[in-house]
């Protein structure tokens, strides 16, 4: 008797990205003529900066970009990332310890693959980005969720981390500014967490892709700037997608200890080889060109952040912590459970999101995608008019 399963258990255990499901559903309804407003996608609504596009056009016409290049990435781009790291964090890194990946997701995948073994535990602050636990499990590890609610501004404490630590703890995932909450850890909080990880020999995988999107005069705190001694057990993930409106170009990167980067490069050499050269040339232009485009987008996001927080707080029962970074707001919606909404009742975030989509034609992401129920994520990376119209619909439905 054939005892093999048709599809591997490893892939059968991976769930489709919840955020992409919501985005696809919203786009399908729009294509069918429904006036759906989507707050689901974590994607800037701005075009890629013109000088970046021009660099790509030039690269397309250059035959040297039509061939394989090093799997680790173009030397010029890795050098630019090293220079950017020194400029932004004060930390000097070798371009040889940088690997260019096909988007930030590949960096996440390769980081966990590089350091996590079967049955290793990875501390995962929740709410978390939906991809993290899937990748941890794919690498053979066990995600250990540590929840911090609205009362903590969605930020875990060292005390919580220590309570969750066991002899099997191998790594900690850190994301600040955060997807999905917009939470931003202070320098003191980052220093405390980093010192704790150093003391216990725990790897830190820090996702800094929203680093340039901070508000109210706050700045991203870098763990290797606060605790430089942690460098030998830290992998830093980043990319051009969010700050430069380049989600479709698929360029991310990772840097860290030479042995971990070598392991990741070995994997990438078999998995995808080099990232598309035209995209790498575009990323090089983004990092080395004028940065005023980033400031322009940040100003727009800040304006929308203030609008969406103010309008959501007008809905009775919602608790809406003010995000300090990224472009997400993450209200606590538990007070809406059990309430009559156009003759319908929701008992969890998924049911509430369905009611909102069907009754108000507004797409939001339920918090089951990011951890416990009771919350929902709304991205404010959409046009001002759509944002106001969408939240107005929520006010009418839920008010």
Please explain how this structure is put together.
The protein has 399 residues and is α/β, with parallel strands linked by helices. It folds into 2 domains: 9-47 and 292-398, Aspartate Aminotransferase, domain 1, CATH 3.90.1150; 68-288, 3-Layer(aba) Sandwich (Aspartate Aminotransferase, domain 2). 41% of the residues lie in helices and 13% in strands. The protein is built from 14 helices and 12 strands. The protein has helices spanning 9-12, 18-31, 50-60, 75-89, 103-115, 131-138, 158-164, 187-199, 223-226, 258-271, 277-288, 292-312, 349-360, 384-398, and strands at 37-38, 98-101, 121-126, 142-147, 169-175, 203-207, 234-239, 252-255, 328-329, 362-363, 365-366, 376-379. Strands 2-8-7-6-5-3-4 form a 7-stranded mixed sheet, sandwiched between helices. A 3-stranded antiparallel sheet has the order 9-12-11. Strands 1-10 form a two-stranded parallel sheet. Helix 4 runs parallel beside helix 11 and helix 12 (292-312) runs parallel beside helix 14. The longest helix is centred in the last third of the chain and has 21 residues, at 292-312. It is globular and about 60 Å long.
């Amino acid at each position: 008797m054939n005892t093999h399963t048709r599809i591997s258990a490893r892939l059968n255990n991976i769930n489709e990205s919840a955020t992409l499901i919501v985005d696809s559903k919203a786009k399908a309804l729009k294509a069918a003529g429904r006036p759906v407003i989507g707050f689901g996608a974590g994607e800037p609504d701005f075009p890629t900066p013109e000088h970046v596009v021009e660099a790509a056009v030039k690269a397309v016409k250059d035959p040297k970009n039509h061939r394989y290049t090093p799997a680790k990435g173009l030397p010029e781009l890795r050098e630019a990332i090293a220079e950017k790291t020194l400029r932004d964090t004060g930390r000097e890194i070798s371009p040889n310890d940088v690997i260019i990946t096909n988007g930030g997701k590949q960096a996440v995948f390769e980081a966990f693959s590089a350091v996590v073994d079967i049955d290793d535990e990875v501390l995962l602050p929740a709410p978390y980005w939906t991809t993290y636990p899937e990748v941890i499990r794919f690498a053979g590890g066990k995600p250990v969720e540590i929840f911090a609610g609205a009362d903590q501004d969605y930020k875990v404490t060292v005390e919580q981390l220590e309570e969750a630590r066991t002899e099997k703890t191998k790594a900690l995932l850190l994301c600040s500014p955060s997807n999905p909450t917009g939470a931003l850890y202070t320098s003191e909080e980052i220093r405390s967490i980093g010192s704790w990880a150093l003391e216990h020999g725990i790897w830190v995988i820090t996702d800094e892709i929203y680093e340039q999107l901070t508000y109210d005069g706050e700045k991203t705190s870098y763990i290797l700037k606060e605790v430089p001694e942690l460098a030998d057990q830290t992998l830093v993930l980043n990319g051009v997608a969010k700050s430069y409106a380049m989600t479709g170009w698929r360029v991310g990167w990772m840097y860290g200890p030479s042995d971990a980067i070598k392991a990741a490069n070995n994997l990438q050499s078999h998995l995808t080889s080099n990232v598309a050269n035209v995209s790498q040339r575009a990323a090089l232009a983004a990092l080395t060109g004028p940065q005023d485009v980033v400031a322009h987008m940040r100003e727009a996001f800040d304006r929308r952040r203030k609008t969406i927080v103010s309008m959501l707080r007008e809905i009775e029962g919602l608790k809406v912590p003010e995000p300090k970074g990224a472009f997400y707001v993450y209200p606590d919606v538990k007070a809406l459970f059990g309430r009559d909404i156009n003759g319908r009742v929701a008992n969890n975030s998924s049911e509430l999101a369905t009611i909102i989509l069907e009754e108000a034609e507004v797409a939001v992401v339920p918090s089951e995608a990011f951890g416990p129920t009771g919350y929902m994520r709304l991205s404010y990376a959409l046009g001002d008019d759509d944002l106001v119209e969408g939240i107005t619909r929520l006010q009418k439905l839920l008010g």
